[in-house]
Design goal:
- The complex is a heterodimer.
- Helix content of chain A is 73%, strand content 1%.
- By secondary structure, chain A is mainly α.
- Chain A has one domain.
- Chain A has a two-stranded antiparallel ribbon with strand order 1-2.
- Chain B folds into two domains: 176 residues, P-loop containing nucleotide triphosphate hydrolases (Rossmann fold, 3-Layer(aba) Sandwich), CATH 3.40.50.300; 249 residues, 3-Layer(aba) Sandwich (Rossmann fold).
- Chain B is 35% helix and 21% strand.
- The two termini of chain B are 38 Å apart.
- Classes of the chains: A mainly alpha, B alpha/beta.
- Chains A and B meet through α8 and α9 of A and α1 and α2 of B.
Chain lengths: 326, 462
C-alpha cells in the first residue's frame, strides 16, 4: 500500500508540473496545447545536459551540484525557448492558439526524438536508450531521515527535491493568483483583456510572462520524469501521453493550482492502479488506463452543470486580443 | 479622446489652463480625468473591490483587499452610493455595475468625470439616484461632463450645454437660459434639400402588422417596449431614432433572429389575404415568405456576406438549398452576380474577388442587390447608406424607390433626418425602445422629429 501511494505520487508529479504551468498560461487567456511538446523538450534538455556533462568528466568524477544544475539549466532553456515561440506566434502575431499549440507539440516531440536518437547513436549503446543513472542518482537523492520515520516517512518524505519543488511551485502559483496584485492583474488579462488594458495593465507583458514561466514549469515536469521516474533512462517516445493528461488535469482541477496537487495524485493513482489489481486481462488494463480521462469528463460535466462562474475557464481563453477591437 | 483611447489629429487639450497631451488611459488618470463608458469595462468573476483596484500599484501597505473595500465604503457613504464591495460583478444589476465604474474613477481621485449616456441603461428611479450623486460631486468641486441625448435630463442636471452635431461643435448655452425647442433646433440643424425622387404610394395595403412587441437584449434589458405599427405595401416606412434605441432589435425580431417576449408580428400574404403569424416561424420560413432583412450596418460583412468569398459564392449563400444532387449549381448565382455587378455598377475586378476587398459602397450594393433579386415582399434596410459616398447613396435610394413602386413594403432605418424626410412616406420615431410618434414625411419638420426622438415616455411621474 505504501508502495502504491509512493508510485502514485511519483506518477503524479510530472502531471502536476505540467498542469501548474498550463494553469498559469491559461489564466493569461492562452490555451497552450503545446504543453506535451514542451514537457518533452524539457526532458530531452535535461538529457542533453546530463549526457554531455557525464561524457565530459566521466561517470566517476561527477560533481553533485553540477550534475543537477547543468541538466536543470538545459531543460529550462529549451522549454523557455518553446514558450517564447508560442508567445511570439499567439501574442505578437495573434496566430490561432490551437493550431500553434498542436504544431508545437509535434515540433517538441520531433526535437526530443531527434536529439534522443542522436545521443543514442553517440553513446554507442546496443539498446535504443540512453542511460544516465549516475546523474539520476543525484536527482533521486532523498531526505536522509526518510526511512527512519516508518510509514509516514515513506509516504511523505521519501521523494526527490523536484517532487517537493512541484508542490511548492503549485502552492506558490495558487497564492500568487489568489492573493497578490500580480495575480489579480493576470486573471484580469485572461478574463477580459480589454478591461485590463483600459485599466493600464500591459496585457502583452502579462501574457508573455505567464506563458513563458508556465512553459518552464511544464518543462521541469519532463525533467522529473526522465531523471526520477525513469531512473535517467531515455528512450524515444517513452514519455507517452502524460502531456495530454496534464492538460486534462487543468480542467479536472478547475484552473486552481492547489487543487491540481490532489488531482495529480489521483491521476497518478489511476494510472498505475491496474498494476496492483491481480489477474487483469490486457483489455481490462487498457480500460483502467482510460480512467483519468473519464474522471476529467465527469468533472467537466459536473462543473458545467453547476455553472458557477468561478469554476469556469478564463472568459477570453483562446481568443486573441486586438487593441483596436473596442 | 480626452480619456486617452483616441489621439487627436490636431488641436489641443487644456487641463486647469495647461496644455496637456494624453496618449493613454493612464495619462488621463494622471490628469485626474475619469471616463465612465457606456459599455462597462469590468471583469465578471471579480468582486467590485477587485475591479476597482485593478491596474493600480500596491500602496505602502501592500496588496490589501480589505483596506481597499473599506475605502470604497467611505467613498460610497460620502456620495451616497449603495454598493457591496464584495459582491461579484456577474451578480450585479446594470445600475450596480455603473456604480462600480463611477467609484472606480473616484477611487483614483478623479476631479473630472465624463459619463457617456449614463442613463441609457437605467430606470427612471435609478437615474434620479445617479443625478443626486452627480449633484453631490458638483458640490464637492468636481467637474462632471455628461453626454446624453435626452433633453429633459440635460435641462434637469446641467449648468451648461454644449451641442454637437455629427462631430461638429454647434454652440454652448447656459441651461438656465434655454429650452427644449432651442436645443432641438441646434441638434438637428437646418433642413438640407436632397432631391430624392419620391412617388406617391400606389394603393397601399397593410402587409406587416407589428403589435405590442416587447423584446429583451442579451443582458436582460428591455430594448423594445410595446412597439406597434403597420407597414404598408408600396410605401417606404422610415424609422428614425437615436442610434441604439431598439432599431436593430426590432428588425431582427421581425426577421426571426431574436425571440419576442410578448406581442406578435402578422404578415398578410398579398395574393390571398391570409394572415401568417411570424412568431412560430423559423428565420428560414420567414425568409421564404418574402420578408428580407437587408443589412445591419454595424456588421455589414458579418451578418450579410462572407467576407472572404467572392460575389458569386455570396449569391450562392441564398440559393444553395435550391440545388439538386450532390454538387453546387454555380451557374445561376454567377449570372445573378454578373447582373448585379452590371446593373448596380459594382466596381470589382471579377465575380470571384472576395467581397472583403471591395469598398463599402460596393459591398452594400452586392448585399442589397442579392436581397432584391429574391423579389421580396417586405424589405428591411438598416442604415443602408452609412459610410457611402453620395453617388452610391443615391443608387441605393433609387433601388429602394423602385422596390416601393413594385409594391414592396420597405422599412428603412436611417439616421439622417433629411434623407428620411425626403425618401419615406411615413416616419415612425423610436425613443428608448418605444414608439414616440408616427409622422407624415411630406409634412413633418426636422424639429418635430427631433423632439420625438428625445422624448422620454416617463412611466413613473412623481
Amino acid at each position: 500500500m505504501i508502495m502504491f501511494i509512493q508510485r502514485a505520487i511519483i506518477q503524479g508529479i510530472p502531471l502536476l508540473f505540467g498542469a501548474t504551468g498550463e494553469i498559469l498560461t491559461e489564466k493569461s487567456g492562452h490555451l497552450n496545447l503545446g504543453i506535451p511538446g514542451i514537457m518533452y523538450t524539457g526532458a530531452i534538455g535535461g538529457v542533453i545536459g546530463a549526457f554531455l556533462y557525464e561524457n565530459a568528466v566521466g561517470p566517476e568524477n561527477i560533481n553533485p551540484a553540477l550534475a543537477i544544475i547543468i541538466p536543470l539549466l538545459c531543460s529550462i532553456v529549451l522549454s523557455l525557448f518553446m514558450g517564447l515561440i508560442y508567445c511570439f506566434l499567439t501574442v505578437t502575431l495573434r496566430a490561432n492558439q490551437n493550431v500553434t499549440g498542436l504544431a508545437l507539440t509535434t515540433f517538441g516531440v520531433g526535437i526530443g526524438n531527434f536529439f534522443g536518437g542522436s545521443l543514442i547513436k553517440l553513446s554507442g549503446a546496443d539498446v535504443p536508450s540512453i542511460n544516465l543513472t549516475a546523474t539520476s542518482n543525484y536527482f533521486k537523492a532523498k531526505l536522509p531521515f526518510a526511512s527512519s520515520l516508518g510509514a509516514v516517512g515513506e509516504i511523505v518524505f521519501s521523494y526527490s527535491f523536484l517532487a517537493y519543488a512541484a508542490i511548492i511551485i503549485a502552492l506558490v502559483a495558487a497564492f500568487v493568483l489568489k492573493k497578490t496584485r500580480t495575480g489579480l492583474h493576470l486573471r484580469a488579462v485572461g478574463e477580459n483583456p480589454a478591461t485590463a488594458d483600459a485599466a493600464g495593465i500591459n496585457v502583452g507583458k502579462y501574457k508573455y510572462c505567464a506563458t513563458c514561466i508556465g512553459s518552464v514549469i511544464a518543462g521541469l515536469g519532463g525533467l522529473f520524469y526522465i531523471m526520477d521516474y525513469a531512473y535517467g533512462v531515455w528512450s524515444n517516445n517513452g514519455f507517452g501521453d502524460r502531456g495530454w493528461l496534464a492538460v486534462a488535469l487543468v480542467i479536472f482541477s478547475m484552473w486552481k493550482p492547489d487543487i491540481s496537487i490532489i488531482g495529480s495524485f489521483i491521476f497518478g493513482a489511476l494510472l498505475i492502479v491496474q498494476n496492483y489489481i491481480p489477474n487483469l486481462s490486457m483489455s481490462a488494463q487498457e480500460l483502467i488506463k482510460m480512467l483519468p480521462y473519464v474522471v476529467t469528463i465527469v468533472v467537466l460535466v459536473i462543473v458545467s452543470m453547476r455553472n458557477k462562474k468561478e469554476n469556469q475557464p478564463p472568459a477570453s481563453l483562446g481568443l486573441p486580443y486586438f487593441r483596436e477591437d473596442r | 479622446m480626452i480619456s486617452g483611447i483616441y489621439y487627436p489629429d490636431s488641436g489641443e487639450i487644456l487641463v486647469n489652463g495647461e496644455e496637456v497631451s494624453i496618449t493613454s488611459p493612464k495619462d488621463a488618470f494622471n490628469y485626474r480625468i475619469g471616463m465612465i463608458h457606456q459599455h462597462f469595462k469590468l471583469v465578471d468573476v471579480f468582486t467590485a473591490t477587485e475591479n476597482i483596484i485593478l491596474g493600480l500599484k500596491d500602496g505602502p501597505e501592500g496588496y490589501d483587499v480589505k483596506k481597499a473595500a473599506q475605502k470604497i465604503r467611505e467613498i460610497s457613504e460620502q456620495y451616497g452610493f449603495d454598493i457591496d464591495p464584495d459582491k461579484k460583478i456577474y451578480e450585479m444589476s446594470v445600475s450596480e455595475k455603473q456604480t462600480v465604474e463611477i467609484i472606480k474613477v473616484l477611487y483614483r481621485g478623479a476631479d473630472i468625470l465624463m459619463l457617456d449616456e449614463p442613463t441609457a441603461v437605467l430606470t427612471p428611479q435609478e437615474t434620479r439616484k445617479l443625478f443626486a450623486v452627480l449633484r453631490r460631486m458638483k458640490q464637492d468641486g468636481k467637474a462632471v461632463v455628461i453626454i446624453t441625448h435626452k433633453l429633459h435630463e440635460v435641462l434637469d442636471i446641467s449648468d451648461k450645454v454644449a451641442v454637437l452635431r455629427k462631430g461638429e461643435y454647434i454652440g454652448t448655452v447656459n441651461t438656465a437660459g434655454t429650452n427644449e425647442t432651442q436645443l432641438t433646433e441646434m441638434m438637428v440643424g437646418q433642413k438640407v434639400v436632397l432631391n430624392i425622387d419620391r412617388t406617391e404610394p400606389v394603393n397601399p395595403e397593410p402587409r406587416l402588422i407589428v403589435a405590442h412587441l416587447n423584446c429583451m437584449n442579451r443582458e436582460g434589458i428591455k430594448v423594445l417596449d410595446d412597439v406597434t405599427f403597420t407597414a404598408n405595401s408600396g410605401e417606404i416606412l422610415g424609422i428614425a431614432g437615436i442610434a441604439g434605441s431598439g432599431q436593430r432589435e426590432l428588425l431582427e425580431t421581425i426577421a426571426g433572429l431574436q425571440p419576442m417576449v410578448t406581442g406578435g408580428v402578422q404578415y398578410i400574404v398579398p395574393e390571398t389575404g391570409e394572415i401568417e403569424f411570424l412568431r412560430d416561424k423559423t428565420p428560414l420560413q420567414i425568409r421564404e415568405l418574402g420578408i428580407r432583412l437587408s443589412f445591419v450596418p454595424e456588421d455589414r460583412l458579418g451578418m450579410g456576406l462572407v467576407a472572404t468569398m467572392g460575389t458569386t459564392d455570396n449569391m450562392l449563400l441564398r440559393s444553395y438549398k435550391k440545388g439538386k444532387g450532390l454538387f453546387l449549381n454555380k451557374k445561376e448565382p454567377k449570372e445573378l452576380a454578373e447582373k448585379i455587378i452590371k446593373e448596380l455598377q459594382v466596381v470589382t475586378p471579377g465575380v470571384n474577388t472576395p467581397v472583403r476587398r471591395l469598398s463599402g459602397g460596393n459591398v452594400q450594393k452586392v448585399l442589397v442587390g442579392r436581397e432584391i433579386a429574391a423579389a421580396p415582399r417586405v424589405l428591411m434596410a438598416a442604415y443602408p447608406v452609412r459610410g457611402l459616398d453620395i453617388n452610391s447613396s443615391y443608387t441605393i435610394y433609387n433601388l429602394l424607390n423602385k422596390q416601393k413602386e413594385m409594391g414592396v413594403a420597405v422599412i428603412f432605418v436611417g439616421e439622417d433626418l433629411d434623407v428620411l424626410l425626403e425618401l419615406c412616406d411615413r416616419i415612425m420615431v423610436i425613443g428608448s425602445g418605444t414608439v414616440t410618434g408616427v409622422v407624415d414625411a411630406r409634412t413633418a419638420t426636422k424639429e418635430e422629429i427631433g423632439l420625438l426622438m428625445t422624448k422620454e415616455v416617463r412611466t413613473d411621474e412623481q
